[in-house]
Write the structure tokens for this entry.
Amino acid sequence: MGAEQSYIDHGKLGEGQFGVVYKVTIDGQLYALKKLKKTPSLDQTGIMREIRTLKACADHDNIVKLFDELISNDEVYILMEYCGLGTLNDYMIQNRPGEETICNFMLDMARGIQGLHDNGIVHRDIKPDNILLVARFLRDPICKIADLGLARFTFPTSGVTATMSSTYYLNTGCGTPLFMAPEVDSGNYTEACDIFSLGVVFYAMYSLQTFNAGTHTLMWPVIPHSSEVFHQASQGEIKSAVTTHVSNRQKAALLKSMLALKPRVRPGDDTVESTISSWQSTWCSLV
């Protein structure tokens, strides 16, 4: 992001609590430029954590790429991959894709989560607005995990505690309640919380329950008839909700296992990925 580069600002893509994301062109190439302002609640340590997280997964096809960063006294600029089709939330609501596309999206997301966990990273805020889509010629769009601002490494990557088990417990409550795993509220959780959240996202794609928040329509997955959020529902209510909206038994079984209230009962990211991948040759039969 040097001064000698050709730069065009196309306006805001989105805005959050700590900063703004802009669509920009630099030397003829489109990017997303995340501009963060240092505040007492977002200091340089937190910002560098997000940069370190993105760099750890720089080569994964299903995680948004980081290209460059610039840190000044009071602002930070992060230059990232531009995902031109926007969020999974908006794409699902506007396009209502068919079964094969939904399966491809599920596989992309599972691989993205696996990429994070393989690097010892827990995302902690998996939801449709944090999944971005990139167009591909004559193929379904590809899904990429984004917004790693709340992500954390599950255990130290160097030093005397580097061999600590990956079951090391995180203890900071965070995330979006609608997609949050039940154990996050208790302050003792592992990477299994991402599996639960991903299960809620999968359910949301099938149920397409929505809520109008002003001019923006949101995917709003809740338990039918009670409007209970998943992490506060009983296991029986969760299973019934999945059965209501997911007609295929194989897919329903996977979602029910991902949405187990007890973290240790949920499948690992490798099992989720391999299960969905095994369907690939039979997409059409899984309707």
About this structure: The chain is about 30% helix and 20% strand. The chain has two domains: 7-81, 88-286. The longest strand covers residues 7-15. Residues 130 and 146 are 5 Å apart (CA to CA).
